[in-house]
Amino acid sequence: MTDARRAVGVIMRATFLAAVLGFFSLPLLWLASAPFDAHPTITASVPSLTLANFRSLLDNPYVLSSLRNSVIQAAASAALVVVLAALAAYALSRVRVPGRDALLYVLLLLSSVVTGTAAMVPLFELATRLNLIDTHLGVVLTLSGGLLPAAIFILKDFMDATPTSYEESARVFGASPLQILGHIVIPLVRPGLATIAVWAVANVWGSFLQPFILLRDPDKAPGSVILYTLYTEGGSPRLDLISTFSLLYSLPVVVMYVFVSRRYGFRFHGGIKR
Amino acid sequence: MSRADPAVSPAGLGRRRAVGFMLPALVLIGVFLVFPALWTIYLGLTDYRLTGLAAADPHVVGAANFTEALGDDRFRSSLWLTVQYVLGSAVVGQAVLGFALAWTLRNRPGPVKRITEGLVLLAWILPSSVVAFLWIALLDRDEGTLNAILHTPGTAWLLDHPMSSIIVFNVWRGTAFSMMLYGAALENVPPSHLETARLAGASTVQQLRDVVLPRIRGHVLTNLLLISLWTFNDFTAFQITAGGPEGRSEILPMYIYNVALSGGRLGFGAAISFLVLLINLVFAFAYLRILRGRREVVVP
């Protein structure tokens, strides 16, 4: 390769990367500047630094209650998904149930086919008939049902990878299956459980469609829905509030993502998303 | 119970107990995933409404919803917008940009790679409500950052070019997945083969076509299928345009919401939902066919 050709390659690469960096950072600039700006406008700009926006955020009743709702829904869904998926994955990993692999694939297939979009009408109807409209439980059950198949699939992988000899000796000493699961298997697959929990929390935290259609009462709505109503309803949006809230609402997801990829490495087939 | 019995686990978990362990998860999945899918079929055959006479006493109208949808201009325009959205933002936008990034950043550890990957990933993991508002702020008519940078004050991007806006938005939002998948795929291409091709005088395009593509063909297919499926079902753009103005960015997910839950025509909306389910099923089956024989599964 000639020097000239190499130089052209370097320049093209640098130009491309600069364009990509610009494209991806441009929308994020506003998130970095506006929350600390004393007089935020919708244009990203160097702010006159202040933390007052965070204080006014705490004074808004909807903001705090929506964060509480987000925590309730995310924690409950994660707990439900982790417990039910661990039980099911353990049974599927250790006992040869007929049609096991087919069952797993059908469930996985269903969870990617029956999305919130494709099922919003029946989910809304179902919640109405079961009196689950305007309840945290409705959101939790709906979201958990969608997350469970993938969670079982990933956890079964973790369970398959742990040796069964401990379980055999525990059984010799008379431990029950539930004791064996709780005292031996769970500690061994703790990284898998943590991954699933974080993945479920991130999913529920960012979910919009399900809480949006299942919750009419703003007192029950999570942060993602309140954020949407903050800028769609009522005349001029309170930019100081929206920008600060956006930043606050994003932080947990970013922190969890960094935590999991640091601690357990980024396992691609268990990628954290949606 | 003998040790050789395959139905008994090392922990003494019999088949009956195993079913007991699986039951809670299966019930939840059955009620909130399988049942809604089946119920969509039935609801789609009725004239069920949110309020009024047909709410109390819905009638089975057969395929009337489907024939009405096919003759409806708003539905056909929505279908066409969805095709543009999936092809433009996923198949072309995310896949091409994602591959270009993975290719440019391969074997190049250092701060530039870390920063680029970090930014692209950030766009992917932030909550959808947050990114939607970031784009509204970026594209705002009077004070948007884009107009300030381009010196085009007063350009209402979301009103004048709603479809292009959400297509570019979705490229920004979803490129990370393609970038990471292709990044992993490119590790399967032996550097020595590329070196040989380069020494033989092959151009970059020739290297990509003759050395790289044959080795990552499976990944390319997997990627295209998954990002198409996700884009097809994505509701995030609703938070930017809600389908407007005048339905010019009303892709199918927004159409279903606007017609069924906002407009109250639940039966008609369910019929459209059923079509979405069928299309999803085609994507998923194609994906499973590729997957057969491979262990890795990408979880959404």
Automatic annotation (TrEMBL), chain A:
It is found in: Cell membrane. It is a multi-pass membrane protein. Keywords: Cell membrane, Membrane, Transmembrane, Transmembrane helix, Transport. The chain crosses the membrane at residues 71-92, 104-124, 136-159, 180-202, 241-260. It holds the Pfam family BPD_transp_1. Residues 67-260 form the ABC transmembrane type-1 domain. Signal peptide: none annotated. PROSITE patterns: ABC_TM1 (PS50928). Belongs to the binding-protein-dependent transport system permease family. This is ABC transporter permease. It comes from Microbispora corallina.
